[in-house]
Amino acid sequence: MSLIKGLVLRSTGSWYEVRDSRDGHIWQCRLKGKFKALGLKVTNPIAVGDYVNFEEEDEGENFGIIHEILPRENYVIRKSVHKTAHAHLIAANVDQAILIATLVFPRTSLGFIDRFLVAIESFRIPGVLIFNKQDLLNDEMKEFQSELMELYSSLGYRCLATTALSEQGLDNFAALLSGKVSLLSGHSGVGKSTLVNAIAPDLSIKTQEVSTFANKGVHTTTFAEMFELEPGTFIIDSPGIKELGLADMEASEISHYFPEMRELLNKCRFNNCQHINEPGCAVKDAVSEGDIAFSRYESYLSMVGGQDNRK
């Protein structure tokens, strides 16, 4: 049996669109039998961005059977909506995760931004923030955004400001994506598709429901999908990002994924300090002295307390 290596571009649960690594041909593939999900408690064994080995099932009909998932560099999961003990694989082998945020129409909360960055830190994937819709900001909001970009840049996160309509920042956006596999996230309405279509108009990324392969009907759920902007440059469009991350994350480890708190590791009086009301807490002292932004500390408390600050 001759196996072919391929890249998973799209999944609808039971069928996978796989690009042949030899010639770029697209196959519609299904899994061979029952698959163990590589030790992860997930609802789906294969993610967009996975490399797999498959065989031709029917060359004339363009079908294949996946036999093996190749080792992953990394992966991104979100909590499963239906199975509380399981997570859902969003993507694999990602070079960077980009959150597209807007401060107005709609407003992306700082809690949501921080939750995204904590999740991405936990997956050890570089995080990037893009603040879109500059044309809608008044002077006060522009100043606020400038302060935010300065804050997140100081923590090591790349920040860009963009406006698709006036093409502000589009060259920087295209350069950011070039040669990488980028996971794109953001609330509905932040202009994610508009931004991508502005730099890659041939893609015409749609946002309506996705049909399954092999005439299996129509799903009302939208699945993550990978697009190639140019050779070697891919984006993964990821819906359902609200439940991203914090799956299986203990409250005691959340501070490890805040870079400014991680720097203070072992500086607190108590080794198991939760940075809430313990005496001799280096993190609380840093907040009081303005070395840690109060908004970030608020986000931390919200996550530790299990509150929903994702809007």
What is the fold's blueprint, element by element?
Elements: E1 4-11, E2 16-20, E3 26-31, E4 51-58, E5 63-69, E6 75-79, E7 87-92, E8 96-101, H1 110-122, E9 127-131, H2 139-154, E10 158-161, H3 170-177, E11 181-185, H4 192-199, E12 225-230, E13 233-237, H5 259-262, H6 282-288, H7 294-304
Parallel strand pairs: 3-5, 8-9, 8-11, 9-10, 11-13
Antiparallel strand pairs: 1-2, 1-4, 2-3, 4-5, 6-7, 12-13
Helix pairs in contact: 1-7
Structure description:
The chain has 311 residues and is α/β, with parallel strands linked by helices. Helices cover 22% and strands 24% of the residues. The chain is built from 7 helices and 13 strands. The protein has helices spanning 110-122, 139-154, 170-177, 192-199, 259-262, 282-288, 294-304, and strands at residues 4-11, 16-20, 26-31, 51-58, 63-69, 75-79, 87-92, 96-101, 127-131, 158-161, 181-185, 225-230, 233-237. It starts with a strand and ends in a 7-residue tail after the last helix. Residues 207-221 have low confidence and may be disordered.
Say how many strands there are.
13
How much helical structure, as a percent, in the residues?
Answer: 10-25%
Separation of the first and last Cα atoms: 50 Å
Kindly name the structural category.
Answer: alpha/beta
Beta-strand percentage? 15-25%
How large is the radius of gyration? 21 Å
Largest sheet: 6 strands, mixed
What's the tally of helices?
A: 7
Unreliable residue runs: 207-221
Task: Provide the spatial order of strands within the biggest beta sheet.
Answer: 10-9-8-11-13-12
The shape is: globular
Helix-strand sequence: EEEEEEEEHEHEHEHEEHHH
Mean pLDDT: 87
